[in-house]
Design a protein that fits this description.
Helix content is 76%, strand content 1%. It is mainly α.
Length: 324
């Protein structure tokens, strides 16, 4: 399914990938080395693919969508470099994080470089409205990360607070990707609004599935350790739901692990995963993701029909069917 989605914009993606590599140049070798290390690790490039699909849906008449796709990927990459420091993550896309391979300061500073390169490229695109949206988006992403930090080790967090975090830290960049692509293509306001909402819903679906996979995925396929969210004290939806539906003994165990600062033994993680499954919390999270995907497909129905609208529907389906 993913291959079919990427193939629909394969020529554009070749241009985006080359443009990204070209824009990693720096007078400082370490910046280039780290930039290439994280970019070469791969990833699905869903955000730039969304830019390309949205632009093609709107019949873009120039090549600036290539630059915009790279901007979106750079913003995302910069957040990963910063996140891995905050979360003290050891693995990213199946490889040691930059923090592990180099050090925390290098990860933060190269993240700053990539953020600033994104905004250099935005200036070249030359659309003030798009610059305004992406400036606001990066601000909201930072707020989302701070909210997540505030919520850390807090078993009292409810679903509404969790939803606010995932909207700010994940969904809003998908939203901006689709919206800005429509604006760059001079699409009608109704089309731009439909694509904006599509991006928001697909981004929410993507994060919900990500949070389910943290308890129900495969380390080899995911490229990160299972149970990282619990180990980092993050109350994501599977845990929030389980805390509301588990018995007192099970609830106490989850709370103890969420609040604690000690590393969680594998057998305890397995026990908590079993509790989450027994409470229907993984299914609840996946159902929430399915609802977001349904809303995303509904947004596509509002768009003029084209081969690319079919691919947008496929992208909505992929956001919940994936295992990585």
């Amino acid at each position: 399914m993913y291959k079919k989605i990427r193939n629909s914009v394969s020529t554009d993606m070749i241009s985006v990938d080359q443009f990204i590599i070209d824009q990693l140049h720096s007078r400082v070798p370490l910046v280039e080395n780290i930039g290439h290390y994280i970019v070469d690790a791969g990833g699905k490039r869903l955000r730039p693919i969304l830019v390309l699909l949205a632009a093609r849906c709107c019949n873009i008449s120039d090549s600036r969508h290539i630059n915009l796709a790279a901007v979106i990927e750079f913003i995302h990459t910069a957040t990963l470099l910063h996140d891995d420091v905050v979360d003290m993550s050891a693995l990213r896309r199946g490889r040691p994080t930059v923090s592990v391979e180099w050090n925390n300061p290098s990860s933060v500073l190269v993240g700053d470089f990539i953020y600033s390169r994104a905004f250099q490229l935005l200036v070249e695109i030359g659309e003030m409205k798009i610059m305004h949206i992406l400036a606001d988006t990066t601000n909201r992403i930072a707020e989302g990360e701070v909210l997540q930090l505030i919520n850390k080790n807090n078993p009292e967090i409810n679903e509404s607070s969790y939803r606010e975090v995932i909207h700010n830290k994940t969904a809003i960049l998908f939203q901006a990707a689709a919206h800005c692509a429509a604006l760059l293509s001079n699409a009608p306001d109704t089309t731009a609004d439909s694509l904006k909402r599509f991006g928001k819903h697909i981004g929410s679906a993507f994060q919900l599935v990500d949070d389910a996979l943290d308890y129900d995925g495969d380390t080899e396929i995911l490229g990160k350790n299972l149970g990282d969210d619990l180990a980092e004290g993050k109350p994501t939806l599977p845990l929030i739901h389980a805390l509301q539906h588990a018995d007192n003994t099970e609830r106490d165990l989850i709370r103890q692990c969420l609040i604690g600062t000690e590393s969680i033994p594998p057998e305890t993680l397995m026990k908590i995963t079993s509790i989450i499954r027994a409470c229907g919390s993984l299914q609840y999270t996946r159902d929430a993701a399915e609802e977001e995907a349904r809303l995303a497909r509904q947004c596509v129905e509002e768009l003029p029909v084209s081969p690319f609208t079919d691919t947008l529907k496929l992208l909505a389906e992929f956001s919940v069917a994936r295992n990585t």
